[in-house]
């Protein structure tokens, strides 16, 4: 429920900004974020996960990584500041110079946030993280929308993203007990680096692989095309990341604590896959089939070219829970070496497919990303056949019931696009019918996750009633 609250607010903010701003402005900011995301990998990835995974950590571990992250952020910010004119020249966009230099300041807040996130995850204080994210989202959303309404264009997006990161840092400073100490241990850094460098390399490969499409589209085609591509990806990504992120945050520390009990770790991983698939499959398939009336209604006609991207990315992101569960299990068992090997293999395959698609246009690039995601699902699942004795067959058996009823629901809902009524009426009918059909099918076929979630809700209600007595 908490994840749904932040997801809902962020969704509304993005809708308002999309209605006020132009596709090319979103395309321009997407190019900027490529360079920032790559830099953030060096600042935030690897060491943060190592802090969570390590069995015994102390203040010296946290503080040492904190100061190291700040130093890395300062070096990378200086580099981006210096090369921003060259980047702007390459894309023939002078506005990239000031935008890059200002928005890259989030590298410093990222250095701070990554340690705070690790502390929260390790101590399972996720409610505090939710409150911080919610508060920051509200503050940045109001400022971003106000800037867009007053005609600041791309700077509205800069303001929204920058204030979001600053606000999270400030709020978490007052809500989380951790404070950096004036200590730094090179030995501690080296110890964490042994595990973390593989995750750092894996994250760098992953970000480069995901963002290289943005670089190619922005250079070979246009910022408008990139804006449509980016917007089509953002909505399914937003939904899945919020749901999957909540499961992901709990899963790594929980599985890490079960490193010596592989049977229970497998049960935990299986529950994650089954439950998240039950929730995400209908959302993504439903989003794909209602894409056109949804885009016209909430984003206006200027965003219609984003519809095919929205449909394709909905299919791609439906697989995210399976990716996450398999990869987190590998990390939790301390096998970051396998994690890195998987990333190399997947990226080589994906880049080969991408290279073939480049001459055929932006839609072809999106299509091969879906294909690459399907291939990656099988690659990610392979090691857990040995590590946790969780085979392909078992994983497919666990997810197929939710997939089947989602497809039936999606087919029925899609047929409603041909109703001769207003777009908003079609959308309302589709959402209502899709929800009723999916829950009804889950009940009829006695879906495992439906029963599990229903029982969980009942237990929560009983606990609240007992607490209020």
Automatic annotation (TrEMBL):
Classification via InterPro entries: Poly_Biosynth_Transport (IPR050833)
Single GO cellular component term: plasma membrane
CDD domains: MATE_tuaB_like (cd13127)
Topology within the bilayer: Multi-pass membrane protein
Domain of life: Bacteria
Membrane-spanning ranges: 29-52, 64-83, 95-117, 129-148, 278-300, 306-327, 348-379, 399-419, 426-445
UniProt-annotated location(s): Cell membrane
Keyword vocabulary terms for this entry: Cell membrane, Membrane, Transmembrane, Transmembrane helix
PANTHER family documented for this protein: LIPOPOLYSACCHARIDE BIOSYNTHESIS PROTEIN WZXC, PST FAMILY PREDICTED COLANIC ACID TRANSPORTER
Family that this chain belongs to: Belongs to the polysaccharide synthase family.
Name used for this protein in its record: Membrane protein involved in the export of O-antigen and teichoic acid
Organism: Alkalibacterium subtropicum
Lineage of the organism: Bacteria, Bacillati, Bacillota, Bacilli, Lactobacillales
């Amino acid at each position: 429920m908490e994840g749904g609250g932040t997801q809902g607010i962020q969704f509304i903010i993005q809708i308002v900004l999309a209605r006020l701003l132009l596709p090319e402005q979103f395309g321009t900011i997407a190019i900027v974020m490529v360079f920032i995301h790559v830099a953030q990998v060096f600042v935030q990835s690897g060491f943060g996960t190592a802090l969570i995974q390590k069995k015994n950590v102390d203040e010296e571990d946290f503080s040492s990584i904190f100061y190291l992250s700040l130093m890395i952020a300062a070096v990378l910010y200086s580099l981006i500041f210096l090369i921003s004119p060259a980047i702007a020249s390459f894309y023939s966009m002078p506005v990239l110079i000031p935008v890059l230099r200002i928005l890259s300041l989030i590298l410093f807040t990222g250095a701070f946030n990554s340690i705070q996130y690790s502390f929260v995850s390790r101590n399972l204080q996720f409610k505090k993280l939710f409150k911080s994210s919610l508060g920051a989202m509200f503050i940045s959303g109001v400022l971003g929308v106000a800037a867009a309404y007053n005609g600041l264009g791309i700077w509205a997006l800069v303001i929204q993203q920058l204030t979001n990161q600053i606000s999270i840092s400030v709020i978490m400073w007052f809500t989380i007990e951790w404070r950096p100490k004036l200590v730094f241990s090179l030995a501690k850094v080296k110890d964490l680096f042994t595990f973390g460098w593989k995750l750092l390399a894996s994250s760098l490969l992953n970000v480069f692989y995901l963002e290289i499409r943005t670089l190619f589209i922005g250079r070979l085609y246009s910022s408008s095309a990139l804006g449509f591509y980016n917007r089509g990806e953002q909505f399914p990504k937003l939904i899945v990341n919020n749901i999957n992120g909540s499961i992901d945050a709990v899963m790594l520390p929980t599985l890490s604590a079960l490193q010596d009990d592989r049977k229970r770790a497998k049960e935990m991983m299986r529950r994650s896959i089954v439950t998240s698939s039950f929730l995400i499959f209908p959302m993504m398939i439903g989003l794909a089939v209602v894409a056109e009336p949804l885009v016209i209604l909430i984003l206006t006609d200027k965003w219609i070219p984003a519809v095919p991207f929205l449909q394709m990315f909905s299919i791609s992101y439906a697989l995210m829970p399976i990716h996450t569960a398999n990869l987190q299990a590998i990390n939790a068992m301390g096998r970051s070496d396998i994690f890195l090997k998987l990333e190399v293999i997947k990226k080589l395959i994906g880049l080969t497919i991408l290279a073939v698609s480049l001459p055929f246009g932006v839609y072809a690039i999106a299509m091969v990303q879906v294909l690459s995601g399907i291939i990656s699902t099988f690659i990610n699942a392979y090691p857990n056949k040995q590590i946790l004795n969780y085979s392909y067959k078992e994983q497919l058996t666990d997810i197929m019931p939710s997939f089947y009823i989602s497809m039936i629901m999606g087919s029925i809902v899609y047929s409603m696009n041909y109703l001769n009524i207003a777009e908003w009426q079609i959308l309302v009918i589709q959402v209502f019918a899709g929800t009723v059909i999916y829950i009804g099918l889950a009940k009829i076929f006695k879906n495992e996750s439906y029963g599990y979630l229903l029982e969980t809700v009942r237990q929560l209600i009983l606990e609240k009633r007992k607490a209020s007595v």
